[in-house]
Amino acid sequence: MKVFYLILVFLLVLPSEIQANSQWGDSVTSIASPTLEIDFPSGNSLIQFFRVTKSEDRESGSDIEMYLTSPATGSPRSYYLGKIEPQGDSPNIESVFTLDVDRDGRKELLIIARWEISHLGLETEGNYYKTYVYKAGKDGLNFTRMKDVESVIGEGLDGTREGKSVYYRYRNAESIRKLFRKP
Question: Which residues form the signal peptide (predicted)?
Fold first, then answer.
């Protein structure tokens, strides 16, 4: 029943949140992935990704805006986490999971984004990956990016760069979990 209530709140509250937070007046918005139930910052939270295309600049691709609906303070509220911008192509959400990366007893939110890369003239193609890491404040209301953790994970291309094969290790949740299991 709680999940049903959260989804209902998510559908009623979120459209006004998007309108209030969107930086572009005239844009096209669509859902970039299904609504996901996640245990961040508390159980029964929902995360949603919306693809936002600027009407004046449709050729550069679309951003993904990220919203979290959480009952952390008792009644469910929606929060704007941030956006993932195009890098030659529109981003895609590859994986969403939680992990206690700083070993403080509280899980952080990790979002792996992927962009398709194709520069045939440069003999470069494949998938480019970047992981976004968010920490919840002790109150469960404020969210900050953990750029220091993001730099440990890094970002990179998996495919071919200038005719040579390249491999990016942290393309999925399991590879990142293994990275942070090390002593």
Answer: 1-20
Choose among 151, 159, 152, 144: nearest CA to 178.
152
pTM: 0.82
166: nearest Cα among 175, 154, 156, 174: 156
Return the half-sphere exposure (C-beta side, CA atoms, 13 A cut-off) of residue 114.
15
Per-residue pLDDT reduced to its tens digit, 53-81: 876 555 667 899 999 998 866 778 889 99
C-alpha to C-alpha distance for 68 and 79, rounded to whole angstroms: 5
Structural domain containing residue 75: 2-181
Residues paired with 101 in a beta bridge: none
Q: CA-CA distance, 136 to 51, in Å (whole number)?
A: 24
Q: Tokens 């469960």 label which residue?
A: 140
